[in-house]
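Today's session is about reading a structure prediction critically. Students often jump straight to the picture, but the first step is always the sequence itself: look for stretches that repeat, for charged clusters, for runs of hydrophobic residues. Only then move on to the predicted structure, which in these notes is written as discrete structure tokens rather than atom positions. Here is the chain we will use throughout the hour.
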Amino acid sequence: MAQKIVFGTDGWRGEIAEDYTFENVRRCTQGFASYMIQTGKQGQWIVVGYDKRFHSENFARAASEVLVANGFNVYLTDGPTPTPVIAFSVVNRKAAGAINITASHNPPTDNGFKVRNEYGGAIPPEGLKAIEGLIPPSEDLVKRAVFSDAVESGKVVIFDAAPAYIEHLKELIDLQPIKDAGLNIVADVMWGNGANWFSRLLAGGKTTVTEIHNTRNPIFPEMKRPEPIPPNINVGLETTVKNGADVLLITDGDADRVGIGDEKGNFINQLQVYALLALYLLEVRKQRGAIVKTLSTTSMLEKLGKIYDVPVYETGVGFKYVAPMMIETDAMIGGEESGGYAFRGNVPERDGILAGLYMLDMMVKLNKKPSELLELLFSKVGGHYYDRIDRSFSGDRASREQRILAAKPETIGGLKVKGLITTDGFKFNLEDGGWLLIRFSGTEPIMRVYCETTRQDAVAAILQDGLKIAGLS
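Below is the predicted structure for this chain, in token form.
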């Protein structure tokens, strides 16, 4: 019997050559193909894309072979392609779904297998469970075609996904004012799929874009992993100051997430970016509609919801929860703590490219630099401060969960505990409107301890208490 494959928050990820092998990628693809057949998608087109990690293009070919053997046709991207572009291609090409070979922001040793539905969004949890259940126990039960034959017969069509996506972007945002603004931009694309995108989109005006880490290098030098948070972004922040740039845009390995550095070389954390993007849509673009947030992201969104009289919906962590809720509520924006944000009018998928462009447009429309935008946000909702600690763990998860439940702390970081939510992890609500969240990663053997508070001096104490509650200190 082969290894049992379990889908996490956003698909399956594993260590290359240890468990992420061609055999297991083919087994996953067979499970996905069987699920698509069961849901009435037999004979339709599937988009397959990939990132710049080790062997990603070859894993994508392996997935294509299995899809063709199961009676599907495949649109295969002609090179490493950002996740939001792959997602848009599903809708643009009227495909039934997508497979994306990427481990996003994981360490360089990993690769991953993401699946998407006909909306280009994450498949809901019940769908992921169904796919898991259809993964065959042996590669002997996997159907497989010959790639070259599939291309020759037209069953696999290799295509450039960029032009259609760029035309779509132009419907969502007028790029000319950004090009004309004369901004000095540094873009850290983290050796990933975001390379050349901001340069291409903003060429032809006074604005300049300097890209760093924009070649293929699967070991991701100068960072632990291509995740747009410190310390991975330190070189980008230093480059921003050195270049006298107005802003740092950071995209993760597959360009579905964005990070922002201000003109002073300070990181604007992902909760603050989410609140800024919501404020941009509400105040600058005068949009109205629901805001969808995961429980691990900012309470500033509830405050903006009250100010602008729009509903705010909270979900579990992951776009497998966010995307369905966005569709159900016709949400204006949806997002999560990891720096992934989705927008109405686009596919219900994280889009680091569009989010970066919206941040630039906010700077231009309000004539403010990033630090000034943060001051504007805080003038409306008050100061909010966030941090996160990730720790690997071993042993039994269930016993750790029982330990957390049994803790029943009266105070955390000197603040009274007002309640506990166990929707997805353990979220302790605090008296200042802030919170502490302890949660197990859905993709790695890691526990995450997060907090947000209105008291900047309490952040460290809240996190340390969180580590104690989790048994990690």
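Discussion point for the tutorial: The longest strand covers residues 385-392.
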